[in-house]
Amino acid sequence: MIEKENPVDIWEAARIAEARVVKKNIFINAARQNNSREAAMEEKLNDLSKKIDELCIKDKRRCYNCNKFGHIASNCRSRNWKPTQRRTFDKHEQSAERRYPQRPRYNSPAYVKGRVNGVDMDIMVDSGAATSIIRYDLVSSISRACQNDSVNFKINVANDSSLNIVGIIQLSVLLDNTEFLHTFLISDNLFCECILGMDFLVKYDAIINLRFNFLDMGSIKIPIIPHTKTRGMISSTVKTDEIDNKLININNSLPLSLKLKVFELINSFHDIFSKNEYDLGRCSWVSHKINTESSSPIKQNPRPIPIHTRDLVKQKLHTMMEMGIIRRSSSAWGSPLVIVPKKDGGIRLCVDYRKLNEITVTDAQPIPRIDTILDSLYGACYFTTLDMSSGYWQIAMNDQDIEKT
């Protein structure tokens, strides 16, 4: 490289070489400075990236694309979209899907093919029915040897029609070559041949699989046969015209035949049972007296009623007036109304009669002792407890003392 410069002598060649060394050092230093600047810039970028990540973590949003915090998938920089995975079924589901038809689009009751005491029939499976029922005309043709307890009552179904229950029978049900023994109610106007209700489903751990349309009974699976004809469905709420059976609570250990006899007995005297809080009786042979002798009338200012309960109070007072529990008054006596909230969100109307009680002459009727009551039960076989519904409303006030309340 020095020869290309054509130096005159050795000293000129030395100056050229020295200049080249200086120039080379300048380039080297410049390169080193550039490298250090790049390193510093890279370090600053790394610090900035860390700070951005720290700020993004504070943002609770998470990207389901890159699985990082601080942004959502639509703003994701990665854009590494994964293909949508199709849901896979296990072998049992695949075999069930091939074997059983999918549930039809229309809403229809579920039926299964079965045999009841040797007679083939389409059996409705109804999880809304509390008990299993069979039609009366089929019972006589199935078996005369089966026990038929004579009963007579009615139950309502979801379409507001009623079924006449005329007896009970125990029958053998054959489903997919498996026999089940079960007790049925007998109805003379059932809209189908036979119904398997919740009592059967619970007893034999049966599950209605609506996805693949079969009745799953563990080891066996019975295909469901849809019926397109609209029919009545048994309601889970069992009622009669006389009294709502939901109000009757009978021990589950009692046999079904005795339960039905209890229902029949209670329905025979339905008029003495309260069906709601305003369905009250009235004692006719005694009235309540408030003896205040010559005391002056007690009058207290009414307590403020919260705004959010005023409509409920008006509704309660209106209903009580319609039912004859209270009436309008223009008396010199006055006790404040007290609003007591219920657990279900409703309210109970009470009256603060403490001032009235202070001037009332006490009727010192002794209350029986517990041991005396227990002694009176000696030798008894049946023990009955009667609870009066709103008993303080069932005893009328004496006409002369009504104004005090």
Q: What features would you describe in this structure?
A:
This protein is an alpha+beta fold. Among the domains are: 110-226, Beta Barrel (Cathepsin D, subunit A, domain 1); 283-404, HIV Type 1 Reverse Transcriptase, Chain A, domain 1 (Roll), CATH 3.10.10. It is 28% helix and 20% strand. The chain has helices spanning 10-58, 91-99, 136-142, 198-203, 256-268, 310-322, 354-358, 370-376, 391-394; strands at residues 110-116, 119-125, 133-135, 149-156, 162-175, 178-187, 194-196, 207-209, 214-216, 221-223, 225-226, 283-288, 337-341, 347-351, 395-397. It is flat. Residues 80-106 and 229-246 have low confidence and may be disordered.
Query: Which CATH architecture of the domain at 283-404 would you pick?
Result: Roll
Strands of the widest sheet, in order across it, are 1-2-7-3-6-5
Sequence stretches where pLDDT stays below 50 over 5 or more residues: 80-106, 229-246
Basic shape: flat
Query: In total, how many beta strands?
Result: 15
Structural class: alpha+beta
In the CATH hierarchy, what is the class of the domain at 283-404? Answer: Alpha Beta
Measured as a percent range, the helix fraction is 25-40%
Distance between the termini: 128 Å
CATH superfamily descriptor of the domain at 283-404? HIV Type 1 Reverse Transcriptase, subunit A, domain 1
Average of the residue pLDDT scores: 75
Main sheet attributes: strand count, strand direction, barrel closure: 6 strands, mixed, barrel
- Portion in beta strands: 15-25%
**CATH fold assignment of the domain at 283-404:** HIV Type 1 Reverse Transcriptase, Chain A, domain 1
What is the tally of helical segments?
9
Order of helices and strands: HHEEEHEEEEHEEEEHEHEEHHHE
Estimated radius of gyration: 44 Å
Domain CCHC-type: 61-78
GO molecular function: endonuclease activity; nucleic acid binding; nucleotidyltransferase activity; zinc ion binding
Biased composition (Basic and acidic residues): 87-100
Pfam family, one: zf-CCHC
